[in-house]
Amino acid sequence: MKFLTFRGGIHPPEKKDATANIKIEKAEDPKLVVIPLQQHIGAPCEPVVKVGDYVKVGQKIGEAQGFVSAPIHSSVSGIVKSIEDVPIATGNEAQAITIESDGENQIDESIQPKGNIESLSPKDIINIIKEAGIVGMGGATFPTHVKLSPPPEKKVDTLILNGAECEPYLTADHRLMLENPEDIVYGLKAMMKAVGVQKGYIGIENNKPDAIDTMLKAIEKEDDVQVVALETKYPQGGEKQLIYAITNKEVPSGGLPMDVGVIVTNVGTAAQVAKTIKTGIPLIERVTTVTGKAIKNPKNLLIKIGTPVKSLIEECGGYAVTPGKLILGGPMMGNAQHTDEIPAVKGTSGILVFDEVEAELPNPSNCIRCGRCVEICPANLQPVYISENSLSNRMEQTEKYRALDCIECGSCSYVCPSRRPLLPSIRVAKNQIIAKKREQKNK
To answer: What Gene3D superfamilies does this protein map onto (predicted)?
Structure first.
């Protein structure tokens, strides 16, 4: 089998051994959940419950505001204790609904199976996904119903499932492919029908041969779905990199996958689509890898949305040593946290805790013009020049160097021998460019 790939990229240590062979375990039910109303790209939800209300599992508690948004549902049954701003994983604060669980897990009466792929129309499938609050579960959290609703002029003919899981440490998608392959294929087929495409691909890195074999068996009777083995290289799971590796199509600068007729989503998202169609349960739980040197017993846990990160770490035996850094997501693109008193959300693919040695920050020195960041950049950018202009506050120049095309994979910072703050400075530039464009649009 040929292993497909893209230009550039890096090979960081995989660090997956701690959890790759550990089956998914259902996490203990939390006594309290804190469910933010902003768990997706787009407009935050508005609460549709009030303090003192009794809510049930799967009940809608946050209503989407606008097309690019996704509703929020309760993951437990119990009493709404508060609706207030709380710290969230992005480093900001957001309004959240805190629910004290009664331990009964009473299912809301609205939760009913939705039928099957054959009986559902494309519009039905998209509406089911929308109402279930399903978003990209690889970490990006873009509302899935929006992805599946391209403008009429965008002729989409291919749907790709991302099973690469190229971030070090994370194994949640790997275990999902091993333990729940049928639902992944079912969800893929449902989304293919929703968009009206005839070609579906499941891309998996070749460091997961067992997942490749399992998914190949799962698609034996599917003529329009293909499992594609990818070279193990970071960031193989990036949308544009995945598209190029599988289809040889290049998404244009400033463009979207739909511009080349492709939609990309995650294997976890597909499994949730299947679960929702079969049972009616919205997105209220997900598989999360809890790992790192500072975790006593690393695990892959099926967690309820809103569970405090601290309690999930305690379920894994707590801290093995003094924690040096806590990251939600993977080490390359995840968000470092200042506390474990935050909730796990729809995009929490991993909870990673480094020890104090791993967490030490390098001291940057002057750029030596080695060009390594340019050589490995998967977006074909010149990170050194974007960074230099950003650090000198020349934001117009960063835009000329296509700062907005940066996928924030962190490969440039990883390979820099001078340990320059390449990615952080590029992020600053992107944020300022976007803010300026938004300001000009609102004038």
So the answer is: 3.30.70.20, NADH-ubiquinone oxidoreductase 51kDa subunit (3.40.50.11540)
